[in-house]
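hey so i finally got around to running both of the ones u sent me last week. sorry it took forever, my laptop kept dying halfway thru and i had to restart like 3 times lol. anyway pasting them below in the order u listed, first the sequence line then the structure token line for each. didnt double check formatting much so if smth looks off just lmk and ill redo it

first one:
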Amino acid sequence: MSVNCTNSPTTLREIAPVSEKLSAVLVFLILIWTAAICCGMAILSDYGATSGVIGQTAEKWPADSTLQRIADEPTLLMFVHPQCPCTRASIGELALLMASGPQTLQARVLVFAPSEWSETQIKCDIWQSASAIPGVTVEQDPDGQEARRFGALTSGQVFLYGPQGELQFRGGITAARGHAGLNTGRSTVIALLTDNSPRKSAVTECSVFGCPLSTPRDP
């Protein structure tokens, strides 16, 4: 007895529409997937380019600050949140700045330290990275008291004070959130530190990119 293995015309007509539907569904899913990727990249790009708040800062070293300033030497302060991932790039830029600036610079990193946090939560990788930079002193800022005195609102915010305690620069030293590389902020600070010409009265300001200091982020 022989078996006929050929497909009947009816069977082929039934398979063709199904195959076309599957192809259409596959194309639709690919389009949705591509659109989702594009939207995600656009959101990340927009987030990275969104600067933080600089805040109002007195043009002289705050009289009520507990931080000791060395007279006749420039002082650089950076306020950071230990759980802000964007700040890693700011610490990296600070290392480059210290390698390019004058050795008479007094540089200090103030780490936001909520009273309810442990030493482990405060002294994390950001603390360790800042401590490894030659010429930089790292210390805690209990509950952000000094940040409020100086008007720092965003992690990674930098203040440069001249030898007489006059504010010369405020802002950030990265080009975007978590983005390392040449940027206006770092270049400006280096120029202010190395330029011996008379200072202008106006304070130079650059955008700062980081998480809010006023929003504790429990790890």
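and the second one:
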Amino acid sequence: MATASSPTSAAPAPRFDRLLLTGAAGGLGRALRPRLGRLCRVLRVSDIAALGAAGASEEAVVAPLQDAAAVHALVAGVEAIVHLGGISVEGPFEPILEANIVGVWNLYEAARKHGTRRIVFASSNHVTGFYRQDEVIRPGDPMRPDGHYGLSKAFGENLSRFYFDRYGLETVCLRIGSSFPEPKDRRMLATWLSYDDLERLVVASLTAPVVGHSVVYGMSDNTTTWWDNTSARHLGYRPQDSSEPFRAALEAKQPELDPGDPSVRFQGGGFVTRGPY
């Protein structure tokens, strides 16, 4: 039995009353959904795809991002948002416009109106995909999107900067590399972000005392890297995983790469050559 002078084993109180996770039916959303639930009293999850049954401490809401009224209702009452929603692959411009550009505008307008304190915005390494793989770049370097998807994420980063400068709405833009259970090819030796490190990065972005408007890369502690992620240190993010244990198998799988291939020359990989549509 616990006494007045002995600690109990009770779990710590959640840091948030209500969080919103958009894109909760996607790959990263499914990975984060149970992990973010530990941070809040209620986790509101949203997508246009099937979400499954809501958990005991969840609210499941279907809300197309291009529907301003639906997004306004979705954001009501949440303290912070992890925005993974939208189209996450390269493709024709019109669907990306609706989901990733109109959709992110609707989200930020709703957050402003409801007084949401902070957004963690899933940007992408494809914002800078036309830098070469023999370069190391920083978040402050000029954007060089590698396609329609990268363009939409560049818009989202600029929009979030505007909402911070004009309205004080804090955002951490995560230029996510390649987040999977393990890296799939040699490119991912540089871009891989483990699910555990993804959780660490998102939690740090939600809980750091002051973030202002921050742009950081979503990457594990990989030996090969194209990105200087010093700007993530103020968040308290310290990656603990690395792609290095997978190197031998991946290099055996892809023993030779053609340096003249744009997908090998540029950081965006195959995205740099997709289209026109």
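quick thing i noticed on the 2nd:
The longest helix spans residues 93-114.
anyway thats it, ttyl
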